[in-house]
Every structure is written in structure tokens, then in C-alpha cells.
Predict the 3D structure of the following.
Amino acid sequence: MDPGVNYPEKAAGSMNRILRLPKGGLSLHSQKDFLKGLPIRNAVLPPLAIVPLVQPDGSEVACLVDVGESVQEGALIGKGKGKHSLHIHAPIPGTVREIRKIPLPRGIEATAVCIELGGAFDRLGKKEAVYPWKGLSHRELKNLLIEKGIAEGDFTLDGPIELLIVNGMELEPYLCGEYRLLLERSDAILEGIRILQKLLDPARTLVVLEDNDLQAQNSFKSSLANEREQGKESLIGKEIDLVLVEGKYPAGDTEQLVKLFFHQKVKPGRSLGEMGVAVVNVATTLGVFEGVALRKPLMERIITVSGKAIKRPANLKVRIGTPLLDIVEECGGLVQIPMKVVCGGPFRGFGIFDLRTPVTRDMSGILFLTKDEIHPGVRTPCINCGKCIDVCPEGLHPAKLFKWIDHGYFREALEDSLLDCTECGCCAFVCPSRIPLVQGFQVGKFHALKLLNAKSGHKDQPNG
Amino acid sequence: MDETLIITGTPQIYNRTTTARMIWTVCFWLVPAALWGVYLYGIGALKILLASIVTSLGIEGGIGLLKKESTLQDGSACLTGLLIGMLLPPTVPLFIPILAASFSMLVVKWSFGGLGKNWMNPALAGWAFVALSFPDQMRTWLFPAMVRGVDAVTSSTPLSLLKNKLFLEGVKGASPMEILAGAGFPRSLMDGTWTDWLNGKILEPLGILLPPGYIDLFFGFTPGAIGETSAFLLLVGTIALIGKGILPWEVPLSVFSVFGTLVFLFGGLPYGLGWGAGDVLFQFFTGGFLLGAFYMATDLVTSPLTRVGLLLYGAGIGGVTFLIRMYGGPGEGIGFAILFMNVFVPLLNRFLTPGRKG
């Protein structure tokens, strides 16, 4: 299939067309309308910031500071070893009190720098200088992004590419940081997209928005119109196409967007950069703008704080490293004891057990979930209801895959396309028998990949 | 508070529906039809219902003790017991519901490993077991008290009476309702008044005329199994359950459309009425068709997994029911049609679900 041919029609026409997930997905709108109406609020600075020195892929970063050293706001404190690894900056000014291992929500341990707030601010409260960026070379832009710690793990920094997808879809229910950013910072986001266009030199640029986020659409459209009026558009000489996608989970997933607009499957082990496509979310686009035009390192994160156990749900701009306890306080405390505290979205987020866990650079929400939001249940036998097949966006048969894996038939599971599973969790969400399907697939993939790597060739005996 | 936080794998939240919740909801919406049966046929019906429910629960509980893991709370045993009771005539001796429930729980359900593992609808299999083993007891019916004033035992439901008239006595040229009226099949007072009212106020201006007899069928004032006669209450329950997304709508839809079409086209032939003269409404409201199509054919465990599968399965049930009713021995047909199609479910799943077919 030629990826270059089947793009959606151009901006004007495509605004009327709403693309849909070809299969499956879930329409969930819990609490979203209420949360969407809350403007982004600046959270109070934490008295102690705990900054994990870790890359998005989980690898460690070399620590550049010592205990007792005083650091400025935005000072470099961690430097990666690899070519594309990111730099980590102090989110607040102060003194390094401690360097210790902390557990992260993903279940890994990482070294973290604990900075006690103190001293003067270099940026906060001051007017930000805007640096011109259009004269910068590709190399300079790339170095800026790496230096400022913006680029995300799986987006390439080298052009030219076929397709740049700016993902304005919310990844999961409850979260609405992307929506608020589109509403409040669409000019900056647009400029961020222009910077990315210059850097990556994409043949096409798509901005993907949710079909029912009318305000976000209008806000972005008016930014585009402004830009055209000011005549800045022609500087890059590239067009931006707006496309609408039905607001279903997991339509905002990278895998789904690439499938929808690039007509290719994301295969494990093959990076998007090699495929010639980059998917960048709105928050990162804003980071690109701030990093390049304001020379501001990544120190903040927009998070949605929600769940029935928190008193005042909010969309917050918080400094990275802020312990969750401070955020609980910021939001008026808890009205009841939550059953789970989840970092990230309700589908792919991680439960945590310690409220001293800090906000990390990839955290998009903190949910204080109660029992009547979680609907927990005990596992009962599969009753062949087929709901998992209906919701699977990859067109798999989750119940059958789980049975293969449960009985140790990993090769058969592979033949039934186990590796297409993106672990979105739709099947487990709808399963009335509460079968741990996603965990099953994680285990299955682990064993199946081992099997593939061994390339044994003969049929493996089931081994439970 | 740290100790109270729960850590699980993804996803962190679930849909409200659980298996137990689904099954108990189905039970809940079946109760009105069952109680209506008790009201129509007397306290004997209640004893039969209780006998089958208690037997089912007892066996499930006993197996739970052996397995050291109780499965009573999932409601499946209660539902099976309730359905078996509703499928039996109100006159059967109590050993029949006990035997039917034992067969369905022990042989059909638990010998395959319990809920979700059986490949045949347990309640229907239990019913089929006693229907084939004790044909005489299973063909003795009661007229509802309000139809005749005194309890009267009959040996025929509307459908079986028709079968006799058509095949043994060779009556021709009359519609089912006319044959029933000719045979002196009693009607309730309510039927007359309601039919007159409906015809006068609603149907006549539209140019339609409802013959007498259908109101009785609709509300269940007719001989039949305890829970099958009230089309009205079964419909109410089904609408609620389909609305909640608990029962798949695909199955009733295809059962009704296939069976209805076949009856309309060919149903008039045995009566000597010619093509396209079948009495669809009559066939829908008799012989436990609604109970079967709504509550037995839709059993999630023994129906296909995908939409196309469900539609084909429903179409099969409709077709087989039609064949049995027109040409077969037992008047009802739908019970055996569902059991017959249950057998094809694994085959349908194999070809209609994602993944390899071999």
C-alpha cells in the first residue's frame, strides 16, 4: 500500500467529514463536560520537588548535581547518555537536599533529586522574551529541543517525513488537558506546529481534533485565520489540515491514528520514525514552542485532577516533581478515601500506593477513584457474551486469545494476531466476568516474543 | 490511608455490568410472568416453581461445597430453576421439576464445568428431558381459573388442539381462531370487552378488525406452561432487558422475522387457506414462542459471539420452529429448535469470529 495516496481530503472539505474507528472502541463521557469547563490553573509551587532522573523509555540519566548544591529554576540537573536522550532540568529554584531512589508509578525504581524550594525565580513572574526561530538551522532546532528536554521518546527529530500528526484528541476518559490547551494556547500550539514543520519537513501535516470538541476546533481555526491575516503562514510554506475523529476511546492512540491516516499498522520493533510518520500531542507541541521560542526547558505539566474522592477536580499546571500530596491539598483535600489513586488515565494509567510519588513528565492526570467509579468485581467464568469482540479496536478475539495464553498455547495466540493488541483495555473494561485480559496479553506477549526470538520452528508443548 | 489503596493491572476502571448483575436482572424481569402464572393456575404452580428453584440452588450449593467455592451468588442456578419451572405445565407432580432441575444442573451444566462451559441451554435441556420421559404428565394443562370459573383439566393447549383438528380430524378452510372457537375453546369475558373496545376505538378507523381470542392469548388466559402464556409480561421484561443491553436484540429480531415470514407465507397451507394467509400473531402468542425467543435463545453462553452469528442462529431457530410446528409432532417446536441450534453455535463461532479458522 502506498502511504502517500490515501490521505483525507484537504482542510476545507475534511472539516465536514468525521473519521471513525473502523472497529470497536468505547464511547465514554464520564465527568468530561464538567472537567472541560475548568480553565487551567497554576498550582502552588511545591516546597520540595522530587525529580526522577529517568527517560521516557525508563532508562536512567546521569545526575549532574550534588547534595547541598543550590540550583536555579530551569538549571540542568540530569543529562542522558545516548544520542537522543533528554536533558532534565530543575523545576524550581532551591537547594538539593537529597538524592535517593524512589518508586515510580510504572513500577520501576529511579534515582530522584529532591530540591527544597528557595532563592529567586528566573522565569516566574517575568515577561518572557520571544526568540526568533525561523532563521535557525535544522541542527540548531534539534539541539534546542534535546537541550530543553522536550522531545518525546518515540518522535523522530530527523526529517523529511511523510506525515506529521498533531494529536489533539484526548487519550482517555477523564483527561482534558489537551482540550484546555487547545482552547487557551492555540496560538502557541500553532507556532509549535510550524516549528515542527520546519524541523521535520513533513509532506503533510494533520491536526486531529475530536468531533464534539467544537470550542477547541473554533479556537484552533481562529488561530489559523489570525496567522493568515498576519501573513506569517507563508514563512514555512506548508499547509495544515484539520481532521475530525469521532471521540471514542482509544481513537486518540498513536496506533489508531497511524492506522486511520497512514494506513499502516505500527509493528512492534519498528519505530514511527522509520515508517516516516510522527505523532505529537498538543502538550508536546506547546513544549516545542516554549523550548524553541521562549528557550524554556520542560518544567511543567498540565494534569487533570479528578475522581469522586477529590473535593475540587481541576485542570492544573504543575511543576514536575510536585508530590501528589501537595496536589491533593491544592484541590481541597479528599472527600472520601479513594479505592485507587491512578497516575495517568483510567485505562492505561498506573495505580500508586504512596502519595509522596511526584508528578512525572509523562503524567497526564491523577485520578482519585472511588468504588462506584471503578466497579470492581471478582473474576467469574467467561460466559461467551462476545462483548470483548465488539469493542476490540484491532478486530481481535480477546476471550479466545486469553484462553490460548491461559493454557500455554502461545504459538496459537500469535497466529491469532496477539501482537496486534495495543493493550488499550477496552475488552477488560467491558468484560462482565472481570477476566484480567490485559494482564493475560502482557504475559502472553512476553512468552510469545521469547518464542519468536528462539525461532525454534517446531510446535511447542503447552506448559501451563 | 496508604494501606487502603489498591494496586491492580490496567485498566483501572470497569463497566458497571457484571455477570452476576446481568443474570439477577434477567431473573428479576422474569418474576412477574412467573407470578402471573401462579395467579392464573393456582398454588400448584407456585409449588412447581419452588421445587425446581430449590433443587437447582441445592445442587449448585452442594457442588460449591465440594469445590470449596460458592457460585450461588452469580444467580445462574436461580435463573435455571426459575426457567425450568416456567416451562412446565401447572399440573405436573413435584418429582418432575425436581428431576428436570437435577438433570439440567448435574448433567448439562456441571458435567461440563459449570457456568459458561455448557453447550446447551440447561433449562431447556432439563425441560426436554422430562418432556420426552413423561409425555403424559407433560401434556396435561389447566384452564386459568377466570376463564371457566372452576379449575378444569384439559389435555390441550391451543396449538395441540389445532394439531389434532388438522391432522386427525382433517378440518380445512378455517383460520386457527375459527377452529378453536368451533371446538368450543373457552374465552374469558375480558377478551370480548377488550376486543370490542380495541376494534371500536382504534382499529376500525384504520380498516383492520381484530377477531376475538387474541386478547386472551396476549394476557395468558389460556392453557399453557406456567410462565409462557403471558405475552404481555414477557414483552415488558424483554424490552427492559434489551434496553439495558443485557439481552442481545439480534436473536429475537431474526427469530421473529424468519419465523413470521415463513408463517405468513406458508402457514395457511395446512389449513387449506392458501399462500400468504398464515396467522402470524396467533403463532407468536402460543406455544411458549415468546419465552423461548426472548429468554432461552438469548442465553449468552449457548449463543454465538458475533452479530452475524447471532442473526444466523436466530434465523435457524425461526426456521426450525416453523418446520416443527407445521410438520412435526410436538406443537410448540421452539424448545427443540433452540436445542438444535445450540449444537451449531461452536461451528458458527469458528467461522464468524476473528482469528484463524482451522
About this structure: The two ends of chain B are 52 Å apart (CA to CA). Chain B touches chain A through 40 residues (CB under 8 Å).
